[in-house]
Amino acid sequence: MPIRPLILAVLLAASTGCTPSSAQQPSEDHPALADVPQQDSAQTQSEQRPSAFDLAQQANYQPQVHLRSVDCIAIQPFSAVPEEQISTVSDVLQALYGVQIRLLEPVEHPASAWYEPRRRWRAERLLDFLETLLPEDCDRILGMTTQDISTTKGEHRDWGILGLANMPGPAAVISFFRCQRRVREVPPLERLRRLAVHEIGHTLGLPHCPTVGCFMEDAEGTVTTLDRETFLCNICRRRLESIP
Ligand SMILES: [Zn+2]
Ligand SMILES: [Zn+2]
Questions:
Q1: Cα of 171 to ligand 1 centre, how many Å?
Q2: Burial of 129 (0-12, 13-18, 19+ CB in 10 A)
Q3: From ligand 1's centre to the CA of 205, what distance in Å?
Q4: For 7-13+53-242, which CATH superfamily applies?
Q5: Centroid of chain to Cα 23
Q6: Confidence of residue 173 (pLDDT cuts 50, 70, 90)
Q7: CB within 8 A of 205, min separation 6: which ones?
Q8: Whole-model pTM?
């Protein structure tokens, strides 16, 4: 195995109530019935509570960050990714990072990334594959999939994640699969939007941020952390804009 000089920055999402031992069981994440999103059933408080749309609107993707050396991000869908997901991600990356988007033709997941014991895709191998697909005139490439992805985390040989990125580096990958879990007010598509901002932030060199609510907060094992991430803090902005 070649040693990767880049840090793999992980936004982790554990299964609900998943203990380390149960996380090892291949059947835990399949079939997808266990992942059916919960409907918001708070009827009595519906008057007081903001709607999912309102909460989604609370995320602030302005003002635009002025990157000095990154002009173009390629988006590489794996297999069938709904157009709605691609356009959502494309729009937010343009709005926040001020980049052009190059939408690449969909490709199949590479067989080299398949992890048969858990029947899902190894994210670090997807990154290796994505690097080979980076167009010459683009600076970063973002893979998108609706299927489950994983990587090694600590003692966990195969740990399900939302996304993975080189930090800094050319490639990131995000998965919609776990965005659909434990849904409360913030809809899965809005989570995907924040996830894309987070992983591309890593590729630009941003580490995890201690500011609560910043898009670069560490998810610390749960997808619901994304629900409170509504802005890119000034520390992260200054850091990005000072990268030569
Ligand atoms: Zn992260
Ligand atoms: Zn921050």
A1: 13
A2: buried
A3: 11
A4: Collagenase (Catalytic Domain) (3.40.390.10)
A5: 20
A6: very high
A7: 167, 168, 239, 240, 243
A8: 0.80
